[in-house]
Amino acid sequence: MQDARLKMQNATSEKLKTKMQNDKSKFKKEFRGRVYRFALDVIEFIEQLPKGQVSNIIGDQLLRSATSIGANVIEAQGASSRKDYTNFFAHALKSANETEFWLCLLRDSGKAERERTENLLREVIELSKILATSIMTLKGKG
Q1: Pick the CATH number of 2-138 from 3.10.20.90, 3.30.1360.40, 1.20.1440.60, 1.20.58.340
Q2: pLDDT score recorded for residue 3
Q3: pTM for this structure?
């Protein structure tokens, strides 16, 4: 009787473990898609900025930082160690923080449409939170 109960518990535990791994894999895939879409949205946003020296310079900086988020998340897939993987996420988080700075600068200087800028800011802040939580988890502090 106890053997049957133990087998049942082990089977349930394995199913739960498999489900959690599938959920984790699904989340990673969705997150990669999300950072990619964010980069595309920023590219489109930059194309709409008024032409001028300030907009061009800030737009270039924004393009570099925003696309770096996704590039580092994607590059983490090929990491050779957990530490390497964590470092790619840390670089992505730094790029997200920089992206937030450039977006705020464009918003507050009046160089960009406020509503569109706010939408991008909300998304980059959410991406930053996910990255920060992932880093803490990877470092065993979450």
Answers
A1: 1.20.1440.60
A2: 72
A3: 0.84
